[in-house]
Amino acid sequence: xxxxxxxxxxxxxxxxxxxxxxxxxxxxxxxxxxxxxxxxxxxxxxxxxxxxxxxxxxxxxxxxxxxxxxxxxxxxxxxxxxxxxxxxxxxxxxxxxxxxxxxxxxxxxxxxxxxxxxxxxxxxxxxxxxxxxxxxxxxxxxxxxxxxxxxxxxxxxxxxxxxxxxxxxxxxxxxxxxxxxxxxxxxxxxxxxxxxxxxxxxxxxxxxxxxxxxxxxxxxxxxxxxxxxxxxxxxxxxxxxxxxxxxxxxxxxxxxxxxxxxxxxxxxxxxxxxxxxxxxxxxxxxxxxxxxxxxxxxxxxxxxxxxxxxxxxxxxxxxxxxxxxxxxxxx
Length: 331
Fold this sequence. Notes:
Blueprint lengths: L1 H27 L5 H5 L1 H6 L4 H11 L6 H15 L14 H36 L4 H15 L2 H15 L18 H39 L2 H8 L4 H17 L6 H7 L2 H6 L5 H10 L3 H29 L8
């Protein structure tokens, strides 16, 4: 397994290089231009001349959008990135790595707690729905799953805000902290501000459990129709033992595939949900940077997601070997 991990990590370097090339070229070809957006009012008022804007673009290395100019820009970014310097964000006026490190933890807290609830709710419901196939519970779970899958995140988030924040007034609509609170202990401060995270977490959980529930149900049905399950029942084992000892472990094998996307989803932020609820997580600030053409931050953020995806895929492959000892990773 050690050799397998080393091979995958070496291959990952080539993958990251290819990903960085594609992302950089796409970003440089975007219509969004940070300098033009920043100084648009000055240009319109005549307080800044087009020549001054061109000088600014030269300073930022954005003056040449030809193929060779983009290649030079990419090479400059790459030589700095391999030394751990992702550049300074145009929008946030800080090193990109520092902005990512500051903002990813609030996204991790929301997504991490939502993921726990998603597993706790979706997997048992999926297994139970498969065991009681075509029952009222199965149909009800299927309907709820389809509703959860079909709802756009911004629409469902607005519905929750309308009900629980506007109509009932139980929870805050937006933000992530209450500036009016003072003289609180760290624990009291944490508890009081958790109210701001309830609606975003409910949104993520409800919209995520549908897919996980259906996936679990489908896998469980396939396992329950296997020959070894019929053999276990023929031996007189209780249905509970057949399901939770023999079937459930094999049901988890396909579910391990989903682990590849867990790391990016945990640290990458929920862009739309964070924007709707006004949470300054990594997804929300990445969206703002994208709109303003912040090339260093967009590059750093996407490479951050690429690294997390590769690590998540590697973790998923290792988990395959743990869940199913028949799988060998050494070759």
